[in-house]
Amino acid sequence: MKKTLYLFLLISIFSCDTPIKKEIKKEVLIEKELPKEVLVEKKVEKKVSNTLLKLQKKKCSGDCPVFDVTITKDSVLIYNGKEFTNIEGIHKVTLSAKQFNTISKILKDADFSELKSRYTTSGTKDYSETKITYLGKNVTVRLWKDAPKRLTDVYVFIEDILYDKKYLE
């Protein structure tokens, strides 16, 4: 029994105090240099439109003239005859100071902000449609008898120029 007791004591002494060699792992941190934030100042140029007014005359079921007109802020009228016009293609005309001042006054008097966006009647599908864009507002007219006079004045003034230049007959 003594032997057993010694054995037991020896085992308990050595088992508690015996250091076990452990492999110590050290974490190695590799520091990567992060890219530095670079602020690049971009100049954002606002695209300023040179367009004063756009007019589009669309198709009807017959032989109505189809054309686009753009009037720029620097007095240039750009005509694009598409179908049933006297002259087809893109043509530019510089408006006189008097013409440009007149169209500017007519446009101001038309007060586009107060106009409805559509002047059409449900039973008028066979007529051509005219779309006028001014100051970002689109106004569509199918029958001019339904449109206010101030809007009709805009169209008549532009149409008169087109007839004078023989773009329309």
Describe this structure in words.
The protein has 169 residues and is an alpha+beta fold. It has a domain at 51-164: Mago nashi (Mago nashi protein, 2-Layer Sandwich). It is built from 3 helices and 7 strands; from the N terminus they run H-E-E-E-E-H-E-E-E-H. The protein has a 7-stranded mixed β-sheet, with helices on one face. Helix 2 (97-110) runs antiparallel to helix 3 (149-164). It is elongated and about 130 Å long. The protein starts with a helix and ends in a 5-residue tail after the last helix.
What's the CATH topology name of the domain at 51-164?
A: Mago nashi protein
What is the CATH architecture annotation of the domain at 51-164?
2-Layer Sandwich
At the first level of CATH, the class of the domain at 51-164 is Alpha Beta
For the largest beta sheet, what order do the strands appear in spatially?
4-3-2-1-6-7-5
Contiguous helical run count: 3
Quaternary organization: single chain
**How many individual β-strands?**
7
The rounded Rg comes to 42 Å
SSE ordering: HEEEEHEEEH
Biggest sheet details = 7 strands, mixed
* Structural class label: alpha+beta
Mean pLDDT: 83
What is the end-to-end distance? 134 Å
Beta-strand fraction estimate:
15-25%
* Tertiary shape: elongated
CATH superfamily heading of the domain at 51-164: Mago nashi
Helix fraction by DSSP (H/I, runs of at least 4): 25-40%
Q: Which spans have pLDDT < 50 for at least 5 consecutive residues?
A: none
